[in-house]
Amino acid sequence: MSTRLLPHEPGDRKCLKCNEMFRSKSAANRICKKCSQVNASLKLSEAQIARERGAKRLNGIPIEEQDTYEMNFF
Question: Which candidate, 69, 47, 49, places its Cα nearest to that of 58?
Fold first, then answer.
């Protein structure tokens, strides 16, 4: 039985780019060293990166502009 890692815990995580397992410092570190080096070598503008990532979404709903959505907790 495996236990789920807490976000701040180091542990083995799957790289979001190549799907290989690697030793991660925390949940914020989700790209392995090899893929990080590949990403750093790419010469892309912010506009190209944004286009490649696609539309931003919150719970499946496209976010048209930054910070224009509301969080309803009631």
Answer: 69
pTM exceeding 0.90: no
* 31, burial (CB in 10 Å: exposed 0-12, middle 13-18, buried 19+): middle
Cα–Cα distance measured from residue 35 to residue 16, given in angstroms and rounded to the nearest whole number = 9
Burial of 26 from C-beta contacts in 10 A (0-12 / 13-18 / 19+): middle
CA dist list (Å): 59 to 25, 42, 43? 27, 30, 31
pLDDT single digits (tens) 17-60: 999 999 999 888 899 999 999 888 888 888 887 787 788 777 87
For residue 54, the 8-state DSSP code is -
**What is the C-alpha to C-alpha distance for residues 21 and 12, in angstroms, rounded to an integer?**
6
